[in-house]
Write a structure and sequence with these properties.
The chain is elongated, with a radius of gyration of 24 Å. Helix 1 packs antiparallel against helix 2. With 181 residues, it is of the alpha+beta class. Helix content is 24%, strand content 41%. Strand 9 and strand 10 form a beta hairpin. A 5-stranded antiparallel β-sheet has the order 5-6-4-9-10. A 3-stranded antiparallel β-sheet has the order 1-3-7, with no helix packed on it. The chain has a 3-stranded mixed β-sheet with strand order 2-11-8, with no helix packed on it. The longest helix has 23 residues. The model has no long low-confidence stretch (mean pLDDT 91).
Length: 181
């Protein structure tokens, strides 16, 4: 997932050698700039997952068939370094539809996946709320979530897996004695 390879180092060495041989300051500055951008991108990427927090919260952990439950997703960046991009792929049941969003079925794992994109500044927190329609009864597991982020230049990327499972239990619909006759 990274744009960086050994070719960048090889290219900067060639540009440096050409700059020295031709006594060209522009080539030397270009090589130095390439190395500085690479070093800054590498450092930014190394710290991108540090201080990052992703959390799922349900308004209720138990509901009856036909009811709705509010799901809140919260991401907080607890460091000076901003996150120019963050992609979260969260495993969710495909049988419980969300308002305002789609949970796509992964045919390989047969699990639902909800993908969201975030951008966070230094020490910023962001929340998004969704409504879950309890359309199928049973025990529904949420998680794990895969967080992907990287440097602002786009040369490096990092992935982390947040195992923190959550659950939502949907009970069968209750019928009154009159409805059952």
């Amino acid at each position: 997932d990274t744009q960086f390879s050994d070719a960048w180092v090889f290219l900067s060495m060639i540009i440096t050698l050409l700059g020295l041989v031709l006594n060209n300051r522009f080539l030397l500055v270009a090589a130095l700039a390439l190395l500085v951008i690479t070093a800054v991108g590498w450092g930014w990427n190394a710290l991108s997952l540090f201080g990052l927090r992703y959390r799922r919260h349900f308004s209720e952990t138990r509901a009856f068939l036909g009811e709705t439950v509010e799901l809140t997703l919260e991401v907080s960046n607890r460091k000076f370094l901003p996150l120019t991009w963050l992609q979260v792929v969260d495993v969710m049941p495909a049988t419980l539809p969300l308002d305002q969003a789609a949970v796509k079925l992964n045919s390989t794992t047969n699990l639902g996946e909800f993908t969201s994109f975030w951008t966070l500044g230094a020490f910023q927190r962001s929340k998004r709320r969704f409504t879950i329609h309890c359309a199928e009864r049973g025990y529904h597991a949420y998680g794990p979530a895969t967080l992907s982020t990287g440097d602002g230049v786009g040369m490096f990327s990092s992935k982390g897996i947040l195992v923190q499972p959550e659950r939502l239990i949907v009970y069968p619909r209750l019928y009154s004695a009159v409805e059952l006759r």
